[in-house]
Amino acid sequence: MNVTRLLRTTPDAAPAMPGSRLKPFLAAFPAAAAGLTLAAALTSPVPVHAQAGATAPGAAAAQAWPARPVRLVATFSPGGGADLTGRIMGARLAETWKQTVVVENRPGAGGSIGAELVFRATPDGHTLLVVATTHTMNSALLPKLPYDLVRDFKPVAMATAAPVALVVNPRVKATTLQEFTSLLRAQPGKLDYASCGLASTHHFAMEAYKFDTKTQALHIPTSCANAVAMLMGNQLDIAVVTLATALPFVQQGKLRAIALTSQARSPLAPDVPTFRDSGIPELKGFSVDNYYGFLAPLATPDRIVSKVEEDVRLALQDPELQKRMAGAGLEPFFRSAAETRKLLAADIDRNRRIAAAANIKPE
Model's pTM, two decimal places? Predict the structure, then answer.
């Protein structure tokens, strides 16, 4: 089996009660989101308030949307990529919709608690899920989830991405991915790497690379910030982390960025090549993107989904919004509703195969 063929090559309700079906895996792995800690870069608080437009009475009011505040449920803690995506996009969408947009953080069970909340929410367009790549890992590793990420939600759009980078301590004798791969092959099983958590996007990306290149390295799950600290403290030489976490130290020459796992280079660091740029034949189609977007409850009216999709697309073209995103370590990653569905389905399938090949299991 060649994981390269599995990787993507085309354009990455009320809260559950104590008796919820999520109980069996509430203690499952703490999959990392993106490891970003740049909330200070934002200038608008959440909830974001805008002038609420008047709605007509009767039948006209029933058709008005949004008729009340819109909730964006971010299933990870404040300061991560999902939260920052919700805050930045929420501020912009509040201006467009003339309505309040609230980011509601519901962390737990690798994002599954918040996802179930949206799954069970009233499908009227006033509750949306900030979906992350991590949710596709959950779907691959937890077969008894109370929902199916593709079948039981209506895709809206993808919005942002937080690129993942392979970074090393400068004492590592490799400046390119080809040299790094040769180093791993020369010392099979003798090198360790840290990632942003067990079953995180970063972990899956490195395991896919290892499988394709027939290399070995022991995984040390931690957090993005701690992985970078370990590199800086000479406790470890290799890490796969969110680019924004390591970028200040890369720019200072204290760390070296070898390559990005994403399909395309990042405007945050245009000089850093991707894995597929490496010239390694096995990585020609390699692509693992770390993305964030929006899903709605399944029965949400198509007219509302189409409006949100178009409003997200237009918002991402705003240069001021792009500046705010860059300040938070994010970049535009628009995908239509149809493309979002295909992306999620393909990534769930890929992650199931990678998990089986690398024996990745939730804790």
Answer: 0.82
